[in-house]
Hints:
Helices cover 39% and strands 17% of the residues. It is an alpha+beta fold.
Amino acid sequence: MPFNDLDAVKAVIDDHTCAIVVEPIQGEGGVVAATQEFMQGLRALCDEHNALLVLDEVQSGMGRSGKLFSYEHYGIKPDIITTAKALGGGFPVSAMLTTNEIASVMAPGVHGTTYGGNPLACAIAETALDIINTPEVLGGVEARRQQFVEALQAIDSKYDLFSEIRGKGLLIGAALKPQHASKARDILNASAAEGLMILTAGTDVIRFVPSLVIEPTDIEEGMARFAKAIAKVLAA
Length: 236
Ligand SMILES: Cc1ncc(COP(=O)(O)O)c(C=O)c1O
């Protein structure tokens, strides 16, 4: 289903719909943040049709957007959130969060998994949450994003490379212009050769998902290496 297209959702949702599942900021889908209108519209449609609004916050949650969970940017409340990745700070753990009302239908044993709820994973998740859910960490995300965006804009003004710099917080996507659209993988490889780890999202988006506490000097160094990689790819 097309993202950020409320009419497309309206066309398929009805009273048999159990749930709508969506990432508030698409990760693999190209680092696209839901619009305010789309997210609020989904909430209203779910309420109207008695469907659950389930948000996949595996990439966008745990402080990535500058809020603990990215739905907090949208003035809505989801019914269920899924979270993982940064929840364990590298240790494999995931969680589903929901309201007391919905949780009441899931008694212990209803939804089993071999390693579910193991004490080591839970202790690590609790520690990660205690570190991330602080004003020092969450409050530093926006300034770091700004530093990335300014560096990317400077690269863009030199090479006219990006059609859009998007995402939220430190989930940043730089979409390549159509004439450079096939170069994402080359840019990723050239960046790796400069000692810089970045990601792609699809064939035409460069994705930056740095540590939430990355030092400004590391951003500066990383973006300098990124600029070098870009220069090499465009000269090839
Ligand atoms: C947005 C999103 N949801 C879900 C998953 C799957 O998560 P897990 O590997 O914890 O099952 C991923 C994995 O990359 C993801 O990016």
